Amino acid sequence: MPQSGIDQDALIEMFASASAKQTAQLREAVGQATLKALQGREMSLKNIKQVVKAVTEAASAGALRNVTPRLDVEAMLNGALAGLDDALLKAVDANRVALERLVDQGVGLQEKQLKKAMADLEKLEDTMFEAVRKAAGSASLARLAGPWSEVLGKMEAAGSLTGAQASATLEQLGSQMQQMQTAMRESRAAGLKAAQTLAQSYAALVSGVLMGMSDALRQGAAPTPAPEPAPKAAARPSRKPGA
User: Fold this and answer.
1) How far apart are CA 55 and CA 116, in angstroms?
2) How many CB atoms lie within 10 A of CB 235?
3) How confident is the model at residue 235 (pLDDT cuts 50, 70, 90)?
4) Is residue 237 part of a domain?
5) Residue 34 vs residues 59, 88, 90, 131, 147: alpha-carbon distances, Å
């Protein structure tokens, strides 16, 4: 198997022997082969270009070998492009999950890692179109330049599933980041307000304690009233003589 991870010989044979009614099968085969190749490597734009290029070349080579009467070459190539789109749609979902994990872990929009990941996601559709166009424009595939141009033009005008999902994902992540930042600001504001309220309450509490202490001090400083004199003892009667 080549460096791209695509079994090009198998794809070439499939396109070479496909009938005019097998475009759906070609789409599924391309999607599965592309997805399998992407799963075995780092999800970078460079690697995606390499895989898309290999699939495009294999589909084109097979289409050129196909001698089926009244074969609709554009339909075959459209099936190949749709299969690529299906696979990259899964790549968008994988990016979405990874980006959401970064956001959940507190990575902000200003972080280099997150900014690059979102920028690459935004470029995914253009990367696919560019890689297909470059591969289809090679000298060995010159006979398919017209059909490929037609197929690409239609999808570019309508928009790919990959591009639509990537835009939706970026919009959703942007909204989540904004909500998180708002929540953080509100949390900080609420925390400050609570601290201020606590400080005010504490100050009032201290004031109350101090007032109580002052009252106690004032009461302790008041002159102690003089004790009343003890009552005099009653005089005993004198005894008479001979009593």
Assistant:
1) 26
2) 6
3) very low
4) no
5) 12, 8, 10, 13, 21
Helix axis angle, 23-39 to 8-17, nearest 10°: 170
Give the global pTM: 0.71
d(C-alpha 33, C-alpha 78), whole Å: 16
Q: Which two tokens stand for residue 160?
A: 């790919």
- Closest to 177 in 3D by CA, of 94, 238, 104, 120: 104
Instruction: For residue 154, give every residue at least 6 positions away whose Cβ sits within 8 Å of its Cβ, in sequence order, or none.
Output: 78
Query: Mean pLDDT across the stretch 189-210?
Result: 59
Instruction: Tell me if 108 is assigned to some domain.
Output: yes
CA gap 126, 162 in Å, rounded: 10
**pLDDT 10s digits, 199-208:** 555 556 655 6
d(CA 90, CA 87) in angstroms, rounded, equals: 5
Q: How many domains does the chain have?
A: 1
Helix (H), strand (E), coil (C) string for the chain: CCCCCCCHHHHHHHHHHCCCCCHHHHHHHHHHHHHHHHHCCCCCHHHHHHHHHHHHHHHHHHHHHCCCCCCCHHHHHHHHHHHHHHHHHHHHHHHHHHHHHHHHCCCCCCCHHHHHHHHHHHCHHHHHHHHHHHHHCCHHHHHHHHHHHHHHHHHHHHCCHHHHHHHHHHHHHHHHHHHHHHHHHHHHHHHHHHHHHHHHHHHHHHHHHHHHHHHHHHHHHCCCCCCCCCCCCCCCCCCCCCC
Q: Do the domain assignments include residue 95? A: yes
Domain housing 20: 8-189
In a domain, 137, yes or no: yes
